[in-house]
Structure formats: C-alpha cells, structure tokens
Prior knowledge:
Helix content: 10-25%
Strand order of the largest sheet: 1-4-5-6-7
Bound molecules: iron/sulfur cluster
CATH topology: Alpha-Beta Plaits
Strand content: 25-35%
CATH architecture: 2-Layer Sandwich
Structural class: mainly beta
Number of domains: 1
Oligomer: single chain
Distance between the termini: 28 Å
CATH class: Alpha Beta
Largest sheet: 5 strands, antiparallel
Order of helices and strands: EHEEHEHEEE
Radius of gyration: 14 Å
Number of strands: 7
Number of helices: 3
Amino acid sequence: MSIKIDYELCSGCGTQDEPPCIKYCPGDLIAVDSEKEKPYIRSERDCWDCMVCVKACPFNALETRLPYQLASYKASLKPQVYQGRIVWQLKDARGKEEVFELKTSG
Ligand code: SF4
Ligand code: SF4
C-alpha cells in the first residue's frame, strides 16, 4: 500500500519550508519536487501506511490506497482529524463511500 496525492487538492503548502506531510512522515519518504513545488513519495514500497501524513495534510489531499488483495483496485481510506473526533472515509472499488466517525481524547 502507499499514499496517493491528489494534486488538484494539494496546495504545496505555499512558502512553508517543510509542509506537514513531509515534516511528520516518520520514514522521511516524502519530498518536494522543486520544479512543480508539490510533494511526491520517494519510495512507495517503503511506506508502511501509518497515515500520519494523510492526517496531517490541511487540504485533505492525501489518501491511502488499500491493497488489491484486501479491497480491490482503487479502494481507498482517508482519515481526517478534528478536535475531539476522527472521521474515516472509506471508498470501495466501485466508488461507494462509507464514513465512520469516532470520538478521540484530543
Ligand atoms: S501537507 Fe497536503 S497540501 Fe501540504 S504539501 Fe503536503 S499534500 Fe500538499
Ligand atoms: S503513510 Fe506514513 S510512512 Fe507512508 S508516506 Fe505517509 S507518513 Fe510516511
């Protein structure tokens, strides 16, 4: 599995030296393409799908693509973090969406 970046939603985080997706990836797997001024993942196979970058993106531009064996091609999972809750958006291979909302302590 790996993340997918939606370049329509990604702002590049403007003038920030280190956009949140880069800052918080524990594996240092995301870098900025200096020409496009947008991030990319250096090595998809090294991503272990912790989703820290997905949660950190303020523009909801990242998602986790679920593996074919688990959920078929194009299925995705996107957590969004809010004060006191987390919302999980699950999209199956046919595009059907389900949303799960859980309370959190933070
Ligand atoms: S945090 Fe989100 S909007 Fe900012 S550069 Fe990364 S993917 Fe793009
Ligand atoms: S899912 Fe985790 S390991 Fe993979 S790129 Fe994002 S922060 Fe890094």
